[in-house]
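Your task:
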Amino acid sequence: MPKRWDPQGYTVKRGDTLYSIAWRYEKDFRQVAEINNIQSPYAIYPGQRLRMQPADKDGTTTDEIRPQVLTEPETGKAIVIETPEEQAVVASATVSRKKASHATVQKNDTLYGIARREGYSHHQLARWNHLQPPYALKPGQKLRLSPTANSLGGQSTSIAAVKPVTKPITSSLRSTSVKAVPITASVSKKPLPVKVDRWHWPAKGRVVKTYKANEPSRKGIGITGKSGQPVKAAAAGTVVYSGNGLINYGNLVIIKHSHSFLSAYAYNQSLLVKEGDSVKRGQSIARMGKLNSKPQLHFEIRRNGKPVNPLHYLPRS
């Protein structure tokens, strides 16, 4: 397991897709999308913080550290507000589910968190309450949850009542030059099949490592062969990841075959497909690379996000 592994949340990095993040956490991508209220085509942004566990009834998850990443609408620049690592985050007070005219800022609340909880974007709350980056909030501050009557033109009056406090929630601000360009997960234009009709062996060779459910290093099978030999799609589908951003997978291809099934091909010498490509069963998608200095393909099949034994699906040779 990588260092600083956070089971509760993940910060999106350049090159990530919703599918690759879900794969990392052994979750179905639809579950991650639902937890974070992300709609198809599942656009995510570098620096965006994703929750990997469902929220509790009061809208919180755990006492994890949650850096706030917001985007300036005009410039597209990412504004990162980080909480010191030694500071523990405490759970927010229970929030009423009834639509109120205002929201009262609680300790450790952020504009992004309040917006998500109330069902708005942080840009809307910032505009309605005349907030400027870095959107510092103070406990007891009241935020309007609807636009003012004259918000579409003319001057508006101040509407955010602030209780005196001695210290804002947010810590020091640092700006990055990250451009807020969405990373859109590839979605096939054709309706996905409910099941995979037939599987194909991804490479010619001998199985040298078998699947074992309780061992993290054996979530799939290892197939030995010759360096550079073709690696082929085990079934028809759409490429949803092609890159080397996942730790312990090297050059990796992930293909979505149906509503439930995905397959992965790891430690490749080179990749022959890109995200969004439609592939046929048996089509070459990569060249076999090396694992521990020996030519080998690591192959996985996942059903609803969970690893399953590929030998239960591949035809008997």
Notes: Residues 206-312 form a domain with the Glucose Permease (Domain IIA) fold (CATH 2.70.70.10). The helical segments are 18-24, 29-35, 111-118, 122-128. The two ends are 34 Å apart (CA to CA). The longest strand covers residues 294-303.
